[in-house]
């Protein structure tokens, strides 16, 4: 094939595929995201890939059709015979046609999110139903073609036509809406009008094991499994010679895909993905050593964002071939943390925490990746912080000092207490100032070689970040103290002048300050934007240009001008480029570098640019390359999707989900929206959502809004789930939208649902309440009538009770009157008794008085008898004496007294006599006087005896009553 033909072929292919903007970079390895079976929780084998109109990805997996929404993996349906899925195709209505093992059919999504599979095997004649894997499924015009080794099945108008061959088919190819079939006996055939026709010289294709065919104006490009590439035109089959023929034959081709600009992506059985250009040069070889998780490629598909999806025998990989960023990797892929990089004498050098490594940059850049490896520079194995080209020398600044790199080894030039970096002294290209851990050191170029001179006196601070201005001042940034401005003396051995600047001098903070030199101007990176020194006040002030484009709210971590006078910066977590348009005006570009967020080594951010436009970023994940000639569309539209909706109570009650066999199958046709009406008991919902943007999907943020419950959208967050509990009855719309790493906001997804009121707040409940209210009103009226009747009856009853009460009151009054009369009678009786008691007492007193008189008379008579003539008066006196004795011994008064006394004292005398029969009448009388509480002196005259006689009588009574000597006889008598 002539060079002119090849050029025509390349141009033809590039014109044939203008839509696909997916030319893969030659330099570096694209970013690869691997999904292993543990991640997607299904079978390891995957055979086909497709994307629907929304952007959802589907994979033909051994377990069924597997769906990926950027966050979650689900098996959405299976063939009726539960066999593996081998091929997929999708029409403009998102109906998925499925080729399986011994089965084929189609799947549609129902309103509840489920995919319903319908087998078409029942339409096949019974004699033709025995077939194996349906290897390819193709939608062509108004028909669907299912291709197996045994037969071709053409589905049209709900009928199936079967096309067979005498021998089995080897493979099938859709080429520009034409179907070619590799027949094991007849060679390469074309399916036209449901009939297989031989192409010119088709027999020469027998046994070639064709795996992919591309059609171009220059002819067909044919990829075979083990024989490499061929071209076919006008019946002539010729080898299509490439520089990777040996690699392709050894790796065994399995599939292929046409990329933009005439590139071919070739999937292999043993070598992963091989990308060649239109003339057969190797562009990329992405295998397991380069980051692909498995080297058996089964299929290749491009998505609508330019990503290449690789279906593997063990897993799935997504290669971001449209990105202008790539990783500089080799087969060893050993070094990751990159502190600095340099292109020197066509070699790429990287400084790592394990020394310095290099590779042949020119060969690597030309695509010779297979035999290009990073090689270690001997002599250094510690942290190398910086690489610099000074004159014709490449110097490395390491923990142990300064080294010069020559060939594949490093020679120690100056042993210091650590070296951060070096800068040339202004106007003295033969003097190199080295910033160390504890001060500054000077090296001098002698005989074209750098030699250590001395340490600079007067400065002992760490000098990791240094710049010099045009007047010879040295600016040193200390991240935790501030900025030092140093002027060296004329002999360059000591500090002549030192000034210090921190927050007191105008900086927003003394922490995390950096110094940069951009267009011969000293600038300072702070936590609040870019600052400079005011020429008049010497205060630190914000720089107006950078304030306009970078603001004053971000931490400026790096500023660096490239050879085209563009300014590269790292501001906060964003990396960008300021391109000067006219003097003082810039355009800012950040989107291509969003993937670099969180990849830099904190405090050691580094960007290296070259004259050729190559840009290198040193990160924790290796060296990343950027080429300005590679562009990518960052404003591509994409959609957010609601993956699953479930009620929290009862637990995990699913309402909407694409997961296989989790919801009861419905017969409704699919629609764009789905709504649910929920009972009040299901008023707690859990939403799962995702975005159909697969570039850095983990960094995609989401905002949501439950219309009818929340007043506005939420803040953006990384969470892909949201719960709502205790929702009141209402109609709701759940909205969600995403924002990817390029700040592109997706189309929103919505889910409409309604929470019904509880049964006691439903319409039927209110009707029931109204009916109950009517019943209640009727009951109240009825009750009032009954109450009035009861009141009337109660009134009558009360009147009767009042009459009875009045009668009772009269009886009570009568009884009270009788009681009052009885009380009066009792009072009269008590009065009579008191009068009798008084009479008894009076009689007793009179008796006492009478007895006293009689005793006095008796005593006088006794005296008269002694004084007068005894004989004369003896008889008279004796007679008087007898009368007096008779009177004193008379019982008349006592009998009356005893009768009254017994009445007053409950027959005291009788009870006393009955109890103590030995008592004499005198004893009884004495006891009666004791009952009346008379004392001894009062009793003696009544008994007509002396006081002594009373005491003797009391003693005798005590003895007769058998009372102890301690007992009081008076108390005993009173209580008897």
TrEMBL record:
Q: Please name the PANTHER family in this protein's record.
A: HYBRID SIGNAL TRANSDUCTION HISTIDINE KINASE C (PTHR43547:SF2), TWO-COMPONENT HISTIDINE KINASE (PTHR43547)
Please provide the Gene Ontology terms (biological process) for this protein: regulation of DNA-templated transcription
Show the coiled coil region(s): 800-827
Instruction: List, for all copies, the residue spans of the domain called HTH luxR-type.
Output: 916-973
- Name-wise, this protein is HTH luxR-type domain-containing protein
Source species: Flavobacterium bizetiae
Segments spanning the bilayer are 763-781
Sorted alphabetically, the keyword list is: Coiled coil, Membrane, Phosphoprotein, Transmembrane, Transmembrane helix
Molecular function (GO) terms for this protein are: DNA binding; phosphorelay sensor kinase activity
